[in-house]
């Protein structure tokens, strides 16, 4: 990049799926052109913890449109080096870099899409809603999992957002959000046993644990609890916190993704636990939307 640009302001934390922005830069990448605007409703996939996919949608101008395939993080160093997605060499928020949302587009850059143009940005609303439900359900499932496994700790692993022993924080290896669901993988190796977790009893009682999680999730869905994202500031690099007022107390979890606005958006959330590999628990979360 040859000129400085400000950090991208984002509106997705409040649930926005439409907005307007000024085109600041159009950059080439190995996958095609990417568009940088000053403000966007698009949620990008994070390059360091890519749990939630980026939004897709359109950039529009005067009745014309170009498709955005999947928004991604981008960054530009103080020396002017532009990096996109997984090519970004540092973690989000590191000083010396300006943090941006990039909008990769399909095909060639149309003649109306130029620097300085004021464009409309429209997110695929149905996909966003499905991903938001999936992300909220993922957090709820992890909290319910922590409750269900609380008696298996012989040492204190720290607390989660509801005060339960933090199995999620200790063991989670990967998390992948999808529309109306998620898949989480947890390490059950020697380090977890040394931390005081009783893996043998867990393996012997996994069916009962799964049932307990699903009972609690049903109770939480029935509560219709408020769910929202609270940002510390307006830019993509500012911290955001998922906030949910559950019957057991308010859960606050640092989270860069998007979420449902209320548990009334769910008819059902269920999980299945798979321990086919005794060293790895796979939890699959499934949503039925209201």
Q: What is the fold's blueprint, element by element?
A:
Blueprint: E1 9-10, E2 18-29, E3 32-37, E4 39-40, E5 57-61, E6 64-68, E7 72-77, E8 82-84, E9 97-104, E10 118-123, H1 125-148, H2 167-171, E11 172-178, E12 181-187, H3 190-194, H4 199-204, H5 206-223, E13 227-231, E14 240-246, E15 249-254, E16 266-277, E17 280-289
Parallel strand pairs: 1-4
Antiparallel strand pairs: 2-3, 2-10, 3-9, 5-6, 5-10, 7-8, 7-9, 11-12, 12-17, 13-14, 14-15, 16-17
Helix pairs in contact: 1-5
Describe this structure in words.
It is a single chain. The chain has 290 residues and is an alpha+beta fold. The chain has two domains: 9-123, Elongation Factor Tu (Ef-tu), domain 3, CATH 2.40.30; 128-289, Threonyl-tRNA Synthetase, Chain A, domain 2 (2-Layer Sandwich), CATH 3.30.980. It is built from five helices and 17 strands. A hairpin with a 2-residue loop joins strand 5 and strand 6 (64-68). Helix 1 (125-148) packs across helix 5. The mean pLDDT is 96.
Rg over alpha carbons: 21 Å
CATH superfamily of the largest domain: Threonyl-trna Synthetase, Chain A, domain 2
Named at the architecture level, the CATH assignment of the largest domain is: 2-Layer Sandwich
Main sheet: strand order? 6-5-10-2-3-9-7-8
Please identify the top-level CATH class of the largest domain.
Alpha Beta
Number of domains: 2
What value does the average pLDDT take?
Answer: 96
